[in-house]
Amino acid sequence: MTDAPTTSLPASHPLVSGRTSGSPLVRALRGDRPETLPVWFMRQAGRSLPEYRELRVGTAMLDACLDPAMASEITLQPVRRHGVDAGIFFSDIVVPIKLAGVDVEIVPGRGPVLGSPIRSAADVEALEQLDPTALAPISEAVARTVEQLGDTPLIGFAGAPFTLAAYLVEGGPSKDHIRARTLMHSDPDTWSRLLAWAADVSGAFLRAQVLAGASAAQLFDSWVGSLSRADYVQSVAPHSAAALAHVADLGVPRIHFGVGSGEVLRDMTTLGTGTVGVDAVGVDWRLPLDEAVRRVGTGVTVQGNIDPAMLSAPWEVLEAHVRDVVRRGGAARAHVVNLGHGVPPETDPAVLTRIVALVHELGDGTDGAAA
Ligand code: CP3
Fold it and tell me: Which atom of ligand 1 is nearest to the CA of 159?
């Protein structure tokens, strides 16, 4: 195992007090192979759970995120039910943008929608800084959750600047993020100011979660797959690095995830520099993990990459796929089992519980048990 990094976290933080530092998740993120592989699911909290749907009746998504008791309870639901190795904080990538004063709502079945898109130099100029005191409900929700989680680590997260910009410039969900990518080339200066603003807002959101007790930090660049490698390296990666730099002094393990990221996986690992810049890289379902390791090397842990489409396939098909994912993950220095993207809302939650039990039976993932 690598030495625990230096940190300016408080002594009571679970990574420092020892509550989570020996957990399978934290050990794997730091490059070790614990006796059992850690497993959690992106979007494990949410619509696949009946207890979530019941609790959310009558409360808008972003109001739920800003209610510390509700956000904490929703975060804990999948941990209790599935026995996953981590909680992921229930919130949304647009929460810090809203707290910075942007008019944004989450429309059910669609996603984040803005009152007016941010497209011109003047629009970007008018964006306000995030007042740190606005993050109080986030810190409170995390602290409550961590208290309940005991030895199970909580993962904090934030949206990467490009994925946020894809919503800000388009004004809502879009297919290929054409307007955002046009702005990148037609007005690079405005683009760079917009991404710098998004990196600050996301970075502050991530830092608040880690200071309040999160034991790992994941940056979601969900729409990175629409970028060419050259555009990613030149116009995006430095801003993702800036967002993650907000937690660098805390010594918390950092995970970088994107969808359709095959072309840029190595650059997501290095954050556009010459050396490994994160502890783990999340891989989507398109790229087998052994091929991902060939691209990123063995200096980083891999996370993934069960195909979400397989969750509704017959168990025999899904089981063979999970075993294959674990076997291929054996090529990495360490492996955190997850999906290649989020849990689809129609997923039968019993299937997720069954995957957790299966993964926990497969030992450290390198003994051929997966064959
Ligand atoms: O369990 C978890 O993973 C933690 C919670 C979480 C949510 N959003 C809750 C949520 C996380 C980590 C996110 C991040 C997020 N939000 C991303 C990056 C991850 C990814 O999935 O790619 C993105 C792109 C968003 C933006 C967003 N918010 C979308 C596309 C949607 C779905 C819209 C829909 O209705 O299909 C949301 C809403 C959202 N965020 C829901 C949840 C549980 C659904 C809200 C509901 O219950 O109505």
Answer: 18
If one counts the domains in the chain, the total is 1
pLDDT tens for 194-211 read: 999 999 999 999 999 999
Ligand 1 neighbours, Cβ below 6 Å, are 42-47, 56, 61, 88, 90, 92-93, 106, 108-112, 157, 163, 220, 222, 342
**6 lies in some domain:** no
CA geometry: angle 136, 140, 145, nearest 5 deg: 150
- Catalytic annotation, pick one of 52, 119, 167, 200: 167
Structural domain boundaries enclosing 211: 14-361
141-188 tens-digit pLDDT: 999 999 999 999 999 999 999 999 999 999 999 999 999 999 999 999
Whether the model clears a pTM of 0.85, i.e. scores above it, the answer is: yes
Is there a domain that residue 371 lies in?
no
> Does any domain span residue 84?
yes
- Is residue 175 a contact partner of residue 234, using CB atoms and an 8 Å limit? no
Residues in CB range of 102: below 8 A, 6 or more apart = 94, 114, 118, 127, 168
